[in-house]
From TrEMBL:
<protein>
    <submittedName>
        <fullName>PD40 domain-containing protein</fullName>
    </submittedName>
</protein>
<dbReference type="InterPro" id="IPR011042">
    <property type="entry name" value="6-blade_b-propeller_TolB-like"/>
</dbReference>
<dbReference type="Pfam" id="PF07676">
    <property type="entry name" value="PD40"/>
</dbReference>
<feature type="signal peptide">
    <location>
        <begin position="1"/>
        <end position="20"/>
    </location>
</feature>
<dbReference type="InterPro" id="IPR011659">
    <property type="entry name" value="WD40"/>
</dbReference>
<keyword id="KW-0732">Signal</keyword>
Length: 327
């Protein structure tokens, strides 16, 4: 059986029995091609990325940035009355650079990255650290920074956890192979151990960021700007084979494009692949001269080339990769 066919069967098999009750992000019918998610609400023509759903699927945290990616703010939208609400700034965000939200499987802890200071009143840090919050009866508790076992004096990015609590993340710390490498840290008795570099199968002298690891740690999808295309980043995939990661392979189009993709995520029901992309769906030339209204709509709507959140069936991603591998 081809490897990707096996992975597809595994992904479909990880869907829980509760799948009879569709999640709020479920699409009506097959979704074989990436489609902009919640157009006009979540994806609006601003710079939107890094979508993360709560385990129940009815809460969405995501990141809004300036057009030049000058500031990152985590926003939140709720699924109510069969529609996503207008996003608002998350109550813990809006002052500092915040991004990369990730829920634990029980929904009680939220990880994210931030340049917020370690002490109130101090200036913002020069680098990004990984923080987390616990849910309380009154909402999210106070954010706490992970200790120096995980955070370094360089930036850390994109925390993702396995079902056993192992933490995957990107870091620019000293001792890596390139500008940014991917690491994992095992959780033992409630404490994270010294991070391990994922090695030459994953990390290069370019930069690797944003690892999404499947809950059982069998599959890794991540973002990389490799030496031969440093001007944009693409998604790569690797497989855990007896505790070792296979040499990473680049995902095909349309999951990658000529521009940068971001924030790979597979929903907890194993059904959808979510990501963000700066691809522009507007043609280079219009079939007729644009009016001012046409131009305004093109420039200020989703698909304008800034960044939008996309959704596609996970089976479409893995089947397409199988087809490309077998040819």
């Amino acid at each position: 059986m081809p490897r990707f066919s096996f992975v597809l069967l595994f992904v479909l098999g990880m869907m829980p029995a509760m799948m009879a009750q569709p999640k709020p992000y479920a699409h009506n019918g097959a979704l074989p091609q990436p489609r902009i998610f919640a157009e006009g609400i979540v994806s609006t023509g601003d710079y939107e990325s890094h979508a993360e759903f709560s385990p129940t699927g009815d809460t969405l945290y995501f990141v809004k940035s300036g057009p030049d990616v000058s500031k990152w703010t985590i926003c939140v939208s709720y699924f109510k009355k069969n529609a996503w609400t207008k996003p608002v700034v998350a109550p813990f965000s809006g002052q500092y650079m915040d991004a990369d939200p990730f829920f634990t499987k029980d929904g009680k802890t939220l990880y994210f990255i931030s340049n917020r200071p370690l002490k109130e009143g101090d200036p913002a840090k020069a680098d990004m650290d990984i923080w987390k919050m616990q849910r309380t009866s009154a909402g999210w508790g106070k954010p706490t920074r992970l200790d120096d076992t995980i955070n370094s004096d360089k930036s850390e990015y994109y925390p993702t956890l396995t079902s056993t609590g192992t933490l995957y993340f990107g870091s620019r710390r000293e001792g890596g192979r390139g500008g940014s490498d991917l690491y994992r840290s095992v959780l033992v008795d409630g404490k994270y151990q010294t991070p391990e570099n994922l090695g030459d199968a994953i990390n290069t002298d370019g930069s690797e960021y944003e690892p999404f690891v499947f809950p059982d740690e069998r599959v890794l999808i991540f973002l990389a700007a490799r030496p031969d295309h440093l001007d944009n980043a693409d998604f790569f995939i690797s497989y855990n084979q007896d505790g070792k990661w296979s040499p990473a392979e680049k995902l095909p189009e349309p999951f990658n494009s000529p521009v940068t993709e971001f924030s790979p995520k597979v929903t907890r029901d194993g059904k959808y692949f979510f990501f963000a992309s700066s691809r522009n769906r507007n043609p280079a030339a219009s079939p007729r001269p644009e009016t001012e209204a046409d131009m305004d709509k093109r420039l200020h709507s989703a698909g304008n080339g800034l960044c939008d959140v996309y959704q596609v069936d996970i089976s479409a991603l893995l089947t397409r990769k199988t087809e490309n591998t077998e040819h």
